[in-house]
Amino acid sequence: MTATAPAARKRSFRPRTLVITAVAWLLAALFLAPYLEMVLTALRPADELRDRSYFPDKLEWSNLVDVWKESSLGDNLQVTLLVAGGATVLVLLVSLPAAYYTARVRYRGRKWFLLLVLVTQMFQPTALVVGLYRQFYQLDMLNSVWTLILCNAAFNLAFAVWILSAYISSIPVELEEAAMVDGTSRFGAMIRVTLPLALPGVVTAVIFTFITSWNEFIMGLTLSTEPDKQPLTVGINNFIGNYTVQWNYLFAASVVAILPVIVLFAFIERHVVSGLTAGSVK
Amino acid sequence: MKTAKPAESPPSTTARAAAGGTRAPSGLLLLSVLLPPRFTPERVKRDRRYRTLDKYRFIAGFLALPLAFYAVFVISPFLQAIYYSFTDWDGGATADFVGLDNYRKLWNDDRFWDSAKTSVSLLVAAPVITLSLGIFFAYMITAGGRHRRGQAVAGVVGSSFYKVVYFFPQVLSIAIVAVVWMRVFSTRSGLLNGSLGAVGLDGLEKPWLGGDYNLALFATLTVLCWSFVGFYVVLFSAAMGAIPRDLYEAALLDGAGRATTFFKVTLPLIWDTVRTGWIYMGIQALDAFAIVLVMVPDHALKVTPVFLYQRFREGQFGYATAIGVVLLVFSVVFSLIIMRVGNRDRIEY
């Protein structure tokens, strides 16, 4: 420690730090600009849409209200809420026991199970979409909220199991054993000891699943063809016509679609980092 | 030899069962398996057969559901896709087996090869650009700061703020990312051309999404990079944070500068994470479906998933599944290649 201190002091000159900070701020601004553009366009009056000015002369708040009347946005929002909520509940119910088991028991085929989880994570939904379409066509379940709930749950399962099992493995099994010595059943130990300790991991998995299902695009696009049965992400594209784009409505709708995501992300921002680390590094 | 084996095994199992405990009556055993564990009598618990069954009861309850889910919604569509790629299914009631016809058609379809060329360009360029930027930002965030007293490495001030800023596009729907950038790249009123004009670079103003192939490719790469780089910043800074500080201190003592430290200490130690990230990013680039479908005009550029989707919309389901199968095989081959190429001796620390 004492040896590094002089070396460190010699290296610390200001200009370099200033340049780095300036570049970092510039990059941050570049990364943030599109959001500002989205919000400003959402509030831009229709006759100013072709102007080049950064800021509109006046903000047209009524855009945010009109967009509901002009389109099936209300239905789309309802579909998205049901799909994201339903898929999240389903994923939690299914993945928690599997993750617990995978973390606690060295069963035969454990490696295979984790490998299966990883490999299916690599399947692009785009390549599977026709197969999914065929499956739900046969079941006569196209244009149904249930279909989207089930598909979103299936595609998020892998990530949830992965994160949760990493989280549960980090909780010492001795705590459960102690509870079992004191007379609780194995199930009781899982519910009353491990689960509360794994809560941050559970919250991360839940919010991640919710956000991913909320944002899902391609399955909504292919498995629902009726405009009022489509999720929000697909619905907003109806503002893009063949020749003109209703930019102000498009972005007013987009703002509605990303607000919940911003709020939820603010909640788990800290956990996301630790969750990702738990799942992927080492 | 083979016939001798089963003859040997029964005595050995009974021997183990005896060592493990007593044998309980079969009826009692069955009942105990069906009831919750707290009703299981002591003597049944000591039976080895009960323990085996108990283990499988656990597996059935905990793993059967996710596996069933996977089977129905991921594995089964996958198998169906393979099957229907050998048929002429067009959305009607019948699907006749046509052998390799769809694949033959694909091989001779120029539109497919054009789209494949674009997809491969993205597959090569996007991971290199995104991962390099991700590693650079992550290094700046974790080790780019001013050296403080007694610390060999320090992050820049406000590193968590940058992480959030970079990461945020990752939580947005890719469909919304695509519409936002469609506006940014718009020729007449777009943010990009507007800003170029404002700083006097009118010459660089371009009809980005006007129909030119190279400009559209550039735009697609920009958006891919913008939306994924934050994920890698977070991933790599976590990996870099896991490197023990004394390794940096030792490198500093030996007189290594920032660049040397990076290439000789940091990069080799996070290589496993980089390789995983490369595969993931490659798969994202190979897909790029929503970005291209929503943002890029059809006549400018097409990627293979969009080509697939258009065949799907036309009702050529058999043909579309064949494209999907080719796409899947290709992404698996890509992953295997990267795993092989990037395979070095793992460094333990």
Automatic annotation (TrEMBL), chain A:
Keywords: Cell membrane, Membrane, Transmembrane, Transmembrane helix, Transport. SUPFAM superfamilies: MetI-like. One of its GO terms (biological process) is transmembrane transport. The chain crosses the membrane at residues 18-36, 79-100, 112-133, 145-168, 189-211, 247-268. It is found in: Cell membrane. It is a multi-pass membrane protein. The keyword RNA-binding does not apply. Pfam families: BPD_transp_1 (PF00528). Residues 77-268 form the ABC transmembrane type-1 domain. GO terms for cellular component: plasma membrane. It comes from the Bacteria. Coiled coil: none annotated. Belongs to the binding-protein-dependent transport system permease family. PANTHER family: INNER MEMBRANE ABC TRANSPORTER PERMEASE PROTEIN YCJP, MALTOSE TRANSPORT SYSTEM PERMEASE-RELATED. This is Carbohydrate ABC transporter permease.
